[in-house]
Amino acid sequence: MSSKVLWYWLVENHAICAGLVHVPRTFLAEFLLAALIVFTVQCYYIMLIWRLLEDRWCRKPLAIIALLLATMSFGAAIAVIYRATTDTTLAVTIPAVIIPACIQTAAAVVADIYIALFLCCILYGQRTGPGKLNVRHHLRDRIMADVDSDISLPMEFLSTRSRLQEWAGASSNESGS
């Protein structure tokens, strides 16, 4: 909910019960803007599916189904806004917008899942780089490479440690005598 809607209900209509039963116009504008943004993003990804499936037989049906779902979601959002603007009283508005609001939400969710699944399938088939990676061999080779490149550091540490132990032993013998 936007801050303007909260301002309308909590500040402008504070202690005015009649103001709490109306849907503010800013809520409708925000709902329209959110639906438009969702529709635009879905259309972008549908266009991406269209481009990635160049020269494939399934290009047209996949894009048309996704576009129908996205358009149905946006159309239901327009229906919600239309019904909410005809009467701004909450008691009338809420029952009038329940069905289109449910259709809008369900169609948007189904469209998003549909687009995500097909993008995953398409991009999985077009991946580049090395084949399957054997994790054990890769980690072993990586560790061995690190050990080979950093072998001088542990050797210096061990020689310094043994010198310190010798010095500590010699100094404790001198103090004990």
UniProtKB/TrEMBL annotation:
Name of protein: Uncharacterized protein
Keywords per UniProt: Membrane, Transmembrane, Transmembrane helix
Residue ranges crossing the lipid bilayer per the database entry: 31-50, 62-82, 94-124
Organism this protein belongs to: Wolfiporia cocos (strain MD-104) (Brown rot fungus)
Domain of life: Eukaryota
